[in-house]
Design a protein that fits this description.
21% helix; 106 residues; 2 helices; alpha+beta; five-stranded mixed sheet; two-stranded antiparallel ribbon
């Protein structure tokens, strides 16, 4: 997902619409899947311009595990454990935590 998001962000440079990619550790049909929450978070972020506080997202982003990350700054850290292991490259990265009140880190 990180490679696809990075490629999309470069191919769609200047595209002024939100593109939010998401996924899950387990399929939606599994009892403890994170797919539903990730999908809800991704749709909420994509539609954030229409509800207060009217945050406009005009780029490719990755929404996974309660975090929203820039698509060209996300990287896969670990894919074998159930814990979410997608992180950001440190320079010029925004990461918004969707579980608690928005906390920005640069």
């Amino acid at each position: 997902m990180a490679y696809t998001a990075s490629a999309l962000s470069l191919m769609l440079l200047g595209f002024k619409k939100p593109i939010v990619m998401t996924g899950s550790q387990l399929p939606l049909s599994s009892p403890r899947s994170d797919a539903r929450q990730n999908l809800i978070d991704a749709l909420t972020c994509a539609a954030a311009a229409f509800e207060p506080p009217h945050v406009t997202l005009n780029e490719v982003a990755v929404c996974f595990g309660g975090k929203l990350m820039r698509g060209n700054r996300a990287q896969k850290v670990d894919s074998s454990s159930y814990q979410v292991r997608i992180g950001c490259i440190q320079d010029r990265c925004f990461c918004v935590c969707l579980v608690q009140p928005c906390a920005y880190s640069v």
